[in-house]
Amino acid sequence: MKPGIHPSYGPVVFRDKAADFAFLTRSTMTSDRTVTWEDGNTYPVVDVEISSASHPFYTGTARVMDTAGRVERFERRYGRGEAR
């Protein structure tokens, strides 16, 4: 890597306040706010709006759309179009 052009890479806590979930990882993101982590060290904290603890796909609350049923319902409602 070329020296002097890359941002600093260090430990950061990402916190999802909606799910009361936080995790420590390494990132180039920075923050003026800090938090004391479980190991007793102080790290910068970045608040995120959604994480694996609150995203519907990861929590199992995602709904699967029934596309075949929707097409059939549309055809029942409006009829099958004629080919042009």
TrEMBL record:
InterPro entries: Ribosomal_bL28/bL31-like_sf, Ribosomal_bL31, Ribosomal_bL31_B, Ribosomal_bL31_sf. The keyword Ubl conjugation does not apply. Pfam families: Ribosomal_L31 (PF01197). Gene3D superfamilies: Ribosomal protein L31. GO terms for cellular component: ribosome. Keywords: Ribonucleoprotein, Ribosomal protein. Part of the 50S ribosomal subunit. Belongs to the bacterial ribosomal protein bL31 family. Type B subfamily. This is Large ribosomal subunit protein bL31B. It comes from Streptomyces sindenensis. The gene is rpmE2.
